[in-house]
From TrEMBL:
Broad class of the protein's primary localization: membrane
Membrane topology according to the record: Multi-pass membrane protein
Annotated localization: Cell membrane
Superkingdom assignment: Bacteria
Protein name: Carbohydrate ABC transporter permease
Assigned protein family: Belongs to the binding-protein-dependent transport system permease family.
Length: 320
């Protein structure tokens, strides 16, 4: 009898389970619980939305309009994109040059930054500080790349021409910065030199934060040499810094413009060093075709997002 009574008392609990709290209520509770974090983040988030998210959304919307800064925007649909890929030969040259920059300068500078950081991290603290300053200095020195104008000067007083003439490699100076055969290679070299900066500093910081006990435990578990230590311990422990460095290198590789303009002019000879960003500047700041410039910016944004997603997939495999 008592068992029957207890069974009857349990029926309502099974028949009417407690109602789940709505997601909105859970979200409100989490916001209230972590409100201090959101308050501290709010200045950055407001600036980020005002100056990054909103302009990107407006640029994406404006790419479907014809807008010359004088007339009211006129909707043209996909016309800007059709013109970009089917009728704009200069853009296709700029796209090819930009891919060349990204393929060459991106991976090479990325691996060079990590390799130099890994080597310098093994030095004594004083030597490491000096070497870090030497590698980081070009990226914080403003227009320091103008020194390359002297190196590749087209007269006999240019360092490279002077060296080649003095030792008999040639008789007359070469116009390095006005010859389309050399312009792209020179800009790539200068970009590689400048790219050994912030990513290098991030890698140094990541190497400094690795827990030494992990290395000792790896030695016990069978790590036999420094390469295995690098692959199974160092790189997995540095995933945030590796991702940060990859984003910087991708952005720098796709956004080459200032160096190209300073060395090769705007526009460069036969558009030999023309990039997507310089093409964007041409239509956005000179011709004021803002709808067409927004289409160029949208294509560049898509390329950067796609490359970042591919890089994230590759970095997830580090240490496997």
């Amino acid at each position: 009898m008592q068992a029957e009574t207890s069974t009857r008392g349990a029926v309502p609990d099974l028949a009417y389970p407690p109602r789940k709290k709505s997601r909105l209520a859970q979200l409100a509770r989490e916001l209230g619980k972590n409100k201090h974090y959101y308050i501290l983040m709010s200045p950055y988030m407001i600036i980020f939305f005002l100056f990054t998210v909103i302009p990107v959304v407006f640029s994406l919307a404006l790419s479907f309009f014809y807008f010359n800064m004088l007339e009211f925007p006129r909707f043209v649909g996909w016309q800007n994109y059709a013109r970009l890929f089917l009728n704009d030969d200069v853009f296709m040259m700029a796209l090819k040059n930009t891919f060349m920059f990204a393929v060459v300068t991106g991976p090479i500078s990325y691996f060079a930054c990590f390799l130099f950081a890994w080597i310098i991290n093994e030095l004594s603290p004083k030597v490491r500080a000096v070497m870090t300053l030497i590698f980081y200095a070009p990226s914080i020195s403003g227009n320091v790349f103008f020194i390359w104008l002297i190196v590749f000067s087209g007269d006999s007083y240019g360092y490279l021409n002077g060296f080649l003439i003095k030792y008999g490699f040639m008789l007359e100076p070469i116009q390095w910065l006005t010859n389309e055969r050399y312009i792209l290679a020179i800009v790539i070299i200068v970009q590689l030199w400048l790219s050994l900066g912030t990513s290098f500093l991030a890698f140094i910081a990541g190497l400094q934060t690795i827990d030494r006990s992990l290395i000792e435990a790896g030695t016990v578990d069978g790590i036999k040499n420094r390469w295995q230590e690098l692959w199974f311990i160092t790189l997995p422990s540095m995933r945030p810094q590796l991702m940060f460095g990859a984003v910087l290198q991708i952005t720098g590789a796709f956004a080459v413009a200032e160096i190209s303009i300073a060395l090769a002019g705007f526009p460069s000879v036969n558009y030999a060093a023309h990039t997507v960003v310089t093409h964007l500047m041409d239509f956005g700041t000179i011709r004021f075709e803002m709808g067409y410039a927004s289409a160029i910016a949208t294509v560049l944004f898509g390329l950067m997002i796609g490359t970042n997603m591919l890089t994230q997939k590759l970095l997830r495999k580090v240490g496997d």
